[in-house]
Amino acid sequence: MARDPQGALVALNRFGFGARGGAASDFSSAASDPRGFVKAELGRPNAALLDAPGLQSSPALAQAVFDYQHDIKRQREAAAKTAQAMAAIGDDLTRKMQNDLPKELAAESGLEMKPGVATSTTSPDVMQPTASPKQPPKPLNIIQKTFRAEALARIQRATMAESGFVERLVTFWSNHLCTSASKGELARIWSGAFEREAIRPYVLGNFGEMLRAVEQHPAMLFFLDNQRSFGPQSRAGQNRKRGLNENLAREIMELHTLGVNGGYTQDDVAALARIITGWTFAGRDGKLAPPGTFTFFANAHEPGPQKLLGKVYEDTGLAQGEAALADIARHPATAKFIATKFVRHFVADDPPPALVAKLESTFKKTGGDLRAMTLALVDADEAWHAPMTKIRMPYEYLVAAGRMMGRIPEDPQRYLGGLNVLGQPLWAPAGPNGFADTNAAWAAPEGIKLRLDIASQIASRIADNVDPRALLDVVAGEAASTETRQTVERAESRQQAFALLLMSPEFQRR
Amino acid sequence: MSDIPMDCCESHTARGLTRRALLLGSATFAAWAYLPKFARAKDGRDPRFVTIILRGALDGLATVAPVGDPNYAGLHGSIALSLDGAHAATPLDSFFALHPSMTEFARMYKDKKAAVVHAVATPYRERSHFDGQDVLESGFGGPGRVQSGWLNRALEAMPRGERVMSGLAVGPTTPLVLRGAAPTVGWAPPYIPQAADDTAMRLVNLYNHRDPALAAALSQGLQIDRIAARDDSMKPKRGMNGAAAMRLAAKGAARLMAADDGPRIAALAFDGWDTHANEGGSVGRLAQLLSGLDGALAEFESGLGERWRDTVIVVVTEFGRTARINGTEGTDHGTGTVALLAGGAVNGGRVISDWPGLKVANLYEGRDLKPTADLRGVIKGVLRDHLGLGERVLAETVFPDSGAVKAMQGLVV
């Protein structure tokens, strides 16, 4: 097969996470067979599963949070007793309020990313953004430790993967069906587990199954408040004088499936909310089930049939909601919404209608087979010939930089800090619609300026044995433009050349 | 070693230039500068306009509570504000009371430098945040129509001048309200050391040849950083919470806008107002957020210095929340809410409202505060009386097809 450098750039950047440095010859492999290079990972059994040592299940993590919260409470009570201070009440209140606020600014503040090629003469502390006076670092609590371990496992996988296409699929679906780590302690400790348990097993499986796994996952139920939604006529609702919370039901239809113009009404939102009352997870007392597991709390379930999108669902308990979800997952509006978002992510902000129609039809024909839809994308010529107008999102950008350096990440803080600066804090979008997927969001003036600052900081830590010209070949081979090559070659230092390479259109666009 | 020029650079245009030279050379930027019509008018006014978008749908009934409405306390239940108790709401008049965490706004109100418009909404009547924000920011009657915002189109409609920079977007991305044909500049609190000028210029040069869109974005990003001189107090601190981050963003924006050649118009967006559960009443999560907003307004007041007297800040949100609390001590997506105005040029000390009442029969769809004022009319009133935009351009360009929505009178001194 003839060598196809432009196809290689598309294979590596549009579909994957960029070429790896070091011993890998990704660019050559991609150039000799771009489609084959992209598809290779899809054929691997369980390609999307992530099972790193030490990562725990959601119930085990919930138990850890409950234990941690119990410890904190005991310590506080002990402290309050010794001090015999009235003020403790006020303190507790303040702390409670702070706990409800987004924490990512506070939690991850290491900001530079480690290129990790060789040691630098610069002390790492010089790079700390706030240059605060040295204090002994506080030991990490179980939530922070878990978040970092989950982040590291994900970043390592993305950095080591061959093309990274499957990992790109994971980031797409995880963003489409997102939770946010800033919702609270449970949400934060569950961020990684949610993705491992409810997203990864299905990215090459069936959409309806993914949807059920997501909407029944404790992380989602917690994020969108469904564990606190009670059927007004249910026994628990009557006893506790509690009622509906429409949040999850609304976002299921608006964001996860039908899309905002998908033909549902406020009455449908309320109906779905009633249908999924009782979908909850067991708390620390473990009365209903082991703490942190999904459970159906029949006492909170609104009794009676419900009419949703013109169809009546009899009250069959848990099965009522599962039937409704299955229908919504197969709805034509869902096929259209999913196909549009998928093409927008991989190809263009304004998705080519013919390509969307192709994927939409595959989705409908196969009942939501995501492997089939993904293959339809890779097989479509439009996906290969569309100009590379999209800019990498911050996560893709930092992972691509790490891959180019050819080193396995060891410190997730550098990535997490970089993501915070660039406006894409890991697993913590501002709302349930996830991070935006358009150039307007990521190629804005301040964003590009910050990217340059980050690139310079990464570059300032590379060693003198790195040859940026060789790295340009790793990244873009003969597809690199003359101007980019000259800009890299004529830079006044290796570090500057490296920063310019990281900012070049060949590295930014996909 | 660094003194010796590398011989590969002989043809390099950027070498030896400073970033400043680069910026002065970018003539396109100056051509896109704007001067509000009233600048240098006989009263010497040099107007500043800020819009703050609260994303997530602010509970207007918890911010400015209709304590005089007999149905309020029952509907809002455990999170209703009251005039009694430890955290009593501040009475604004005989009917409305302000959330107790907004002490700065209360002071401005007393000084007649702040006002409230209640039972207000955009034309959007559904309950999707994202569509609601689209209508709020695009200025169109429905969602998804355009990729430009009313504030950007207002900029375009203003006379162009040489000294004044274009609109300022605070944060790593530009909100839709300020996106469009008129170029804008972005600024965010600096979190990391900046790249060297020389590296930046080489990159602009590369982008100019290979990627015009990135060239434009980077040039504007660089230009605004020059004006926001580095300042330790601008740096986010470890452990900073959302309220402190709001203050910091406002402080930086105020510094930029106070300069004679700084931007006159800015947009900020604060997240986190979607209070489905545990909203809190006089204390709690919403209280914390409102105190952040209150602090941001105070930062504008102190940072703008003399220019505060020429300033109008309009705080808006995509829609309100249900009048009745839900099953989880929160509120769901609703319709009518408040708009807040603050600034030395505000004709304040008033709650402006054609109050619809909170009887169930008076609620919108039996659940939300019924809107009796169109938010576009509020903004039109400010744009007309503060920035000098004409009725026609407001009705046709800034808020298309809004001829029937009259600009609210008398919002500006």
From TrEMBL, chain A:
InterPro entries: DUF1800. Pfam families: DUF1800 (PF08811). Residues 107-139 are annotated as: Disordered. Residues 118-133 have a biased composition (Polar residues). It comes from the Bacteria. This is DUF1800 family protein. It comes from Afipia massiliensis.
From TrEMBL, chain B:
PANTHER family: BLL7424 PROTEIN (PTHR43737), DUF1501 DOMAIN-CONTAINING PROTEIN (PTHR43737:SF1). This is DUF1501 domain-containing protein. It comes from Afipia massiliensis. The lineage of its organism: Bacteria, Pseudomonadati, Pseudomonadota, Alphaproteobacteria, Hyphomicrobiales.
